[in-house]
What we know:
Low-confidence stretches: 3-11
CATH topology: Spore Coat Polysaccharide Biosynthesis Protein SpsA, Chain A
Strand order of the largest sheet: 3-2-1-4-7-5-8
Number of helices: 10
Largest sheet: 7 strands, mixed
Number of domains: 1
Structural class: alpha/beta
Amino acid sequence: MTVSESIYNQKNKYRRPSALIVLPVFNEEKALRKGVDTLLSFLSEYDRYEWKIVIADNNSQDSTGEIGRQLESENLNVTYLYIPQKGRGIALRTSWQQTDCDFVSYMDIDLSTGLDALIRATDLLNEGAEIVVGNRLAKKSKTTRCLKREFISRSYNIVIKTALRTQFHDAHCGFKTGRREVVQKILPYITDNEWFFDTEFLFYGERLGHKIIEIPVTWIEDPDTKAKIFKDAYDDILGLYKLKFHNTLNTQRK
């Protein structure tokens, strides 16, 4: 080992692991500041990680951009990123591709998922886990949502497991984390730029041999959610068909 290598190893021995949290937003002027301030306050109690927050604005038409830039100017750990295309998938892809943080994650700006899950997931990643995601359907999860959305969610996940023979249980939970090198290896296989991005992420992660750890979460439904049940259901069915018969892995093998 050279002297420079020894110095590098010593520095990294005491370096705090870095963790990126992406907050994908579209027209969230009412929720943005409250969500970021709540998250910053919570993270200040867990300084064993170097936290970084990216507000990934995918083409908002309200004052989300102005508020995002204000938050960036007020906090060194906050970055505002404007993406001129609508879609949660493109917001996550862009943010995760550009980072050099050790761990990456995303949460919905309404913070529907209890923040304690963020610490548990990051600790697991720091211990060597590759992908850690929330599972609202786990027995120990505490979920508050209407019966209609509960039924649709459970039905959708049954369809996924039946059609694709997957092992994960909750594709739509708005909380996913992973080691940067693992996530960036998966991203090139994903084609969807909207809500189905989550399902593709888990599907390709599993097919590429990465272990997915699911943890129970506390989750409260946002009554102002922008999810559109019937459109999302149609997109999901179409996406599942593509994954079943025309997924990227199958195409590359031909």
